Amino acid sequence: MVQRCTLTVLNEFDITPDLHSRPMATLVTPSAQHPQGLIPSGQLWLPRASLSACLHGTMVRSTLGYTLTDEQRINRFPATPLCSLSWWFEGGSEALVADRPNALPGLHSRREAYPGRWVLTGPHTRPSTSYCATPTHGMMVMFMPDALHLLTGLEPAALTNRMVDAQTVLPRDWIAMCEAVQHQPDDAARMDCLEAFLEPRWQACRPAQSLQVQRYGDWAVHLAQRATLSAPGRSLRQLERRIKRWAGLPLRELRGVGKAEKAFFDILAADAALDCVKWADVAVDAGYSDQSHLCRISRRITGFSPQALYEGILRDETFWAYRLWI
């Protein structure tokens, strides 16, 4: 019965998977040098080349078959300029809410149910935390905010720091796609179903010149250039309004995330020992005024100091989303 309904939805909106005639998303294989004592972080799917300016990537996480402590069921995510669309195929998640502003939620923090079966999340200016009370298999598709705006007409600025029920805001054909993805037999089929839906829609609305390499810093520069050339009116205030409308965040915020990303990846590329990282040098190389400046930005984006974040990635189950991008 489920299979029959799924095929009906696929045919109605012409998103039937065709595995033989179309390029597919790329599954990034996790490193063999996985931290001892931690379960595999999950799967990272990178989009086919034609969707690289639309999708940043897709994270799939399954804890089915693993034994985790209550503390290990926490999921930590950084502040991000991206929008996301999430599914749960087994189990589910709840948001953890801190007791006071600027505090990090923990195991005993207040829990809030997510707003719907499929959840659309806007850009976040602060880190977020969730909890999975039972073994869970879920998928989070990360959209470039300007691409989501072009595809759906939604304003990322109106979604900033919000999670909403996708069924209340997305167009009817998107809801049919969400249903179709929900009933696919495995993650590869889910990705193909999603990308088959997005491909013709993105090709119809994508900018004439779009950026292929999606480092945040490069994307912020590209977005500023698009804003300058896209419409009459090029005063600084008009450009800033245009960028915030497309991305949900001001250009200054986007550039800040780009700097933090550079510092993060520089450390990972160096593969330095925990006690050998020279954070002052990292700060200068990434364009910060000093180490204190780097620490403030790190805490604002992740909730942790650079050293605590680095240790968490290497040793703590709750930082699986960070490890997945290494």
Description:
The chain has 326 residues and is α+β, with helices and mostly antiparallel strands. The protein has three domains: 2-205, Jelly Rolls, CATH 2.60.120; 216-247; 251-324, Arc Repressor Mutant, subunit A (Orthogonal Bundle), CATH 1.10.10. Helices cover 41% and strands 16% of the residues. It is built from twelve helices and eleven strands. It has helices at 2-12, 145-152, 156-159, 172-182, 187-205, 216-230, 236-247, 251-270, 279-286, 291-302, 306-315, 320-324, and strands spanning 26-28, 43-46, 55-62, 74-77, 83-90, 94-97, 110-113, 119-121, 128-131, 137-143, 163-165. The strands form two sheets. It has a seven-stranded antiparallel beta sheet. Strands 4-9-6-7 form a four-stranded antiparallel beta sheet. Strand 2 and strand 3 (55-62) form a beta hairpin. Helix 4 packs antiparallel against helix 5 (187-205), helix 6 crosses helix 7 and helix 9 (279-286) packs across helix 10 (291-302). The longest helix has 20 residues, at 251-270. It is globular. 37% of the residues are buried. Residues 1-21, 218-223 and 225-233 have low confidence and may be disordered. It comes from Acidovorax temperans. One of its GO terms (molecular function) is sequence-specific DNA binding. InterPro entries: HTH_AraC. This is AraC family transcriptional regulator. Residues 235-312 form the HTH araC/xylS-type domain.
